[in-house]
Amino acid sequence: MPKNIYGDPEKVAKEVTEKEFETSKRVVDEALEHGLKLINEAYEKALREAETQLRSEISRAEEQLKSVVSSLELEVKSEVTALKTKYLEEAMKKALSQIGEVKNSKAYENYLVKVLTRLNEEDYPQLVVYTSEDDVSKVQAIISRLGLHKLVVSTRPVDILGGVIAETPDKSVRLDFSLDLLIKINEHRLLGAASRVLFPTS
Q1: Please, what is the angle between helix 136-146 and helix 106-121, to 10°?
Q2: Sequence spans of domains, the chain
Q3: CATH code 3.90.180.10 for 99-198
Q4: Which of 20, 41, 115, 202 has an alpha carbon within 20 to 30 A of 183's alpha carbon?
Q5: Residue 8 — φ and ψ, nearest 5°?
Q6: pLDDT-derived band of residue 30, with 50, 70 and 90 as boundaries?
Q7: Cα separations in angstroms, 33 against 18, 26, 29, 37, 98
Q8: 167: pLDDT confidence band, cut at 50, 70 and 90?
Q9: Of 105, 160, 97, whose CA–CA distance to 132 is shortest?
Q10: In angstroms, rounded to a whole number, what is the distance separating the alpha carbons of residues 188 and 94?
Q11: What are phi and psi of 35, to 5 degrees?
Q12: pTM greater than 0.70 (yes/no)
């Protein structure tokens, strides 16, 4: 049912306008407040998502960086190991190249005496002794001097650094007292000693 308004038309119109303005203002304010709330919620949500994504990307980047660093560390260690191995091998080669000086020493002659004496005591009627070309005359002289009658020196030299290898005539038994075998047996210890000299802080 229509509402009847009485009184001064201008005053009534003004009151209506003011009431309508207040109502409109309240609606606008509420709408604005609601809109701002929605915008703020959306912003906070976007911020949280962005932060989560950023953290995830940082985490991935850190993992990738760790992987790169680990790979580089492994590569460096591998290179260092390769260089150490190279220098150790060169040191061993240099040491072996000077074996001639060792073979001219009294200690080496004493080694041959002990080895040949032991071979002569073995329970075999005869042993053929093989040695390097430069040791043939030396080994013959020791056998002759000590009267080691079970030992016969082969005139066919073998390719060894030094020492001797003895075999029964039928080659069923082989006794290796070569410097080559001694070096091979002690290779790990020799390399360790060389490493401590070359890389004392490793």
Answers
A1: 60
A2: 1-97, 99-198
A3: no
A4: 202
A5: -65, 120
A6: low
A7: 22, 10, 6, 6, 95
A8: very high
A9: 160
A10: 17
A11: -65, -45
A12: no
